[in-house]
Amino acid sequence: MEAVLARMRALEERLPPQDGVAVFNRVYLTVTETLHRRIEHGAFPAPRRAETLSVRFAERYLTAVEAERAPACWRPLLQYRRHPGIRPLQHALAGINAHIGHDLALAVVATCGELGCEPRALEADFDRVGDTLVSLEEHIREDLMPGPDLLEIADPLTHLVGSWSLERARAGAWSAARLLWTLRRAPELAEEFTDSLDAGVGLVGRCLLTPRG
Q1: Cα separation, 155 vs 79, whole angstroms
Q2: Which superkingdom, per the lineage (predicted)?
């Protein structure tokens, strides 16, 4: 995991702090460092599986933000990363939405292919990674939500971010991973489903990045 952590740290140094991608990168770097420590300290019964899943997962994010043309799910964050009417909380949640809603399912399938196992063999690792992400979401909401002096402005924002759930996104990612694994011998159908998933997650991202009035 050191390689992906190094890439995230380099991104953090390169981007201005208020950049929307930088906001997401900071919180994702924190969760990846936490996962790395937990794997090293034996929190995962199958550390190789957990590390492979975590690395394939992180690589999808890094590839997306470094690509000339990112997947549809990442485009809203990249397009609105410097918009003055969008709060850091929105940037962070839009990144999580893209990463969980799209990247996680593809990372599970890639890990299964690499390790020669079925998705059910990864379920415990998937759940432990997901639990870490849930704690990350709570941290984001606590740290990035505007303070009481901005409640009047934040009311629509509270409604907006409250309509998105990491738990639902995680459950959807697991279902998508299982379906994609089933479709691996029907590449045209798998590609069609992946494109549809990408577009749908991107639409949610655009909603999360609605500028405040």
Answers
A1: 24
A2: Bacteria
Each of the 213 residues of the chain gets a pLDDT tens digit; together they read 999 999 999 999 999 999 999 999 998 999 899 999 999 999 888 999 999 999 999 999 999 999 999 999 999 999 999 999 999 989 999 999 999 999 999 999 999 999 999 999 999 999 988 888 877 777 776 766 655 544 455 556 666 667 788 889 999 999 999 999 999 999 999 999 999 999 999 999 999 999 876
Q: What is the CA radius of gyration of the chain?
A: 17
- Residue 210 DSSP symbol: P
In terms of Cβ atoms closer than 10 Å to its own Cβ (0-12, 13-18, 19+), residue 129 is buried
**Dmax over Cα atoms in the chain, in whole Å?**
55
Question: Given its phi and psi angles, is residue 86 left (phi above 0), alpha (psi -120 to 50 degrees) or beta?
Answer: beta
